[in-house]
Design a protein that fits this description.
By secondary structure, this protein is of the alpha/beta class. It has two domains: 4-31 and 281-382, Alpha-Beta Complex (Aspartate Aminotransferase, domain 1); 55-277, Type I PLP-dependent aspartate aminotransferase-like (Major domain) (Aspartate Aminotransferase, domain 2), CATH 3.40.640. It is built from 15 helices and 13 strands. It has helices at 4-7, 13-24, 40-52, 64-78, 84-87, 94-105, 122-128, 147-153, 176-188, 228-231, 246-256, 265-277, 279-302, 329-340, 368-382; strands at 27-28, 88-91, 111-116, 132-137, 158-164, 192-196, 222-227, 240-243, 306-307, 315-319, 342-343, 345-346, 359-363. The strands form three sheets. Strands 2-8-7-6-5-3-4 form a seven-stranded mixed beta sheet, with helices on both faces. Strands 9-10-13-12 form a four-stranded antiparallel beta sheet. Helix 2 packs parallel to helix 14 (329-340) and helix 6 (94-105) crosses helix 11.
Length: 385
């Protein structure tokens, strides 16, 4: 017998759509990885460190230079004052950080507030840890958090809230009012916030990421999770950061030691170097992605699609109903990949209950030729309905 949490789970929509794209030769605007290879100097540093650096077990909580570099990065970019020795742990990617946080902080029966649409790993990991999901439904076009919805979700049994900002798949960067409202509920209910902030460097239009940890009352009750893979567009590197007050960090680190224990030392040392030497990347990367976002959005609008705003991440969304397409998102995406040669992701798959069924997610972290061909094929798909 397999574990009941995982027994009934389907193959992820990302694997389904990417598999169809491979089988049909379709353009893949579904899965969220960039066409470009990431900073060359950083990749060369990682290669150099494999040959000349340490390749045995590094410290369980991460090499000191990376923990120091992560604390320094968050001080410079977000104004956070973190003690690298007691408040920073390195994990093998952000998903491992999430798993360690849930395993460390959830007791059986604890309730966990989640926002839909949501990263598909959250709910299974929480349930495997013994938690009970309490779902808050967000809707387009603005995906805002409301007081009534929070009041319905938080109860005396609320232990955690999981907050993804910027939000994948919606591409929204939550305004300060929403952050303050969520912080208020966390404080009143004595809840811990698990903040999935992997897209923190990927924000546009002059925005600046504000971590929930920085709000009043949240410093001691927030677990902040970051991703070097997203920071440097090296999604396969799987180097994550957990930042939290000492008591929370100690608990998460104890779970981490029995998951992956540690992370490749050459990648840790390379990321440490990158955090201190790649400020030009942190300036250029979001600027270039914003240009790609605007190119895809303009092309889609010229073909009659209603495009929702995207303030961050690699993604923007189209509203099929507002575009005059008489089909749900899953039907549209399956026909688009099979008959028009372009893969996209139906946003309904990011909901567990009462899904929004008219929104399709597209990845714009692609070269211009791919984006332009994607627009042409999406226009072809639109004519199928």
């Amino acid at each position: 017998m397999v574990n009941s949490v995982y027994a009934g789970l389907p193959t992820t929509i990302f694997e389904v759509m990417s598999g169809l794209a491979r089988d049909t030769g379709a353009i893949n605007l579904g899965q969220g990885f960039p066409d470009t290879p990431g900073p060359e100097a950083l990749r060369r540093k990682a290669a150099e460190l494999v040959v000349d650096g340490w390749n045995q077990y590094p410290p369980m909580r991460g090499v000191p230079e990376l923990r120091q570099a992560a604390a320094g990065h968050y001080r410079r970019f977000q104004g956070l004052d973190l003690d690298w020795e007691t408040e920073v742990t390195v994990t093998s990617g952000a998903t491992e950080a999430l798993a360690a946080s849930f395993l460390a902080l959830i007791e059986p029966g604890d309730e966990v507030v989640l926002f839909q649409p949501l990263y598909d790993a959250y709910a299974p990991l929480i349930r495997r840890a013994g938690g009970v999901a309490r779902l808050v439904r967000l809707t387009p076009p603005d995906w805002r958090i409301g007081r009534e919805a929070l009041a319905a979700a938080f109860t005396p049994r609320t232990r955690l809230v999981v907050f993804n900002n910027p939000l994948n798949p919606a591409g929204v960067v939550f305004p300060h009012e929403d952050l303050a409202l969520l912080a208020e509920f966390c404080v009143v209910h004595d809840a811990i916030a698990i903040c999935d902030e992997v897209w923190e460097q990927v924000v546009f239009d002059g925005r600046r990421h504000v971590p929930l940890m920085a709000l009043p009352g949240m410093r001691e009750r927030t677990v902040k999770i970051g991703s070097a893979g997203k920071m440097f567009a090296l999604t396969g590197w799987k180097v994550g950061f957990v930042c939290a007050a000492p008591e929370l960090t100690a608990a998460v680190a104890k779970a981490h030691q029995f998951l992956t224990f540690t992370t490749p030392p050459n990648l840790q040392a390379a990321v440490a170097w990158g955090l201190g030497n790649c400020d030009d990347w942190f300036e250029a990367m979001p600027r270039d992605l914003q240009r790609s976002r605007d190119r895809l959005a303009a092309g889609l609008r010229s073909e009659g699609f209603a495009v929702l705003d995207s303030g961050g991440t690699y993604f923007l969304n189209i509203d099929l109903a507002a575009s005059g397409v008489d089909a749900d998102d899953r039907t549209f995406c399956l026909r688009a990949v099979k008959e028009a040669g372009v893969a996209a992701i139906p946003v309904s798959t990011f909901y567990e209950t009462d899904p929004v069924t008219s929104v399709v997610r597209l990845c714009f972290a692609k070269v211009d030729a791919t984006l332009d061909a994607g627009v042409e094929r999406l226009a072809r798909a639109r004519k199928l309905f």
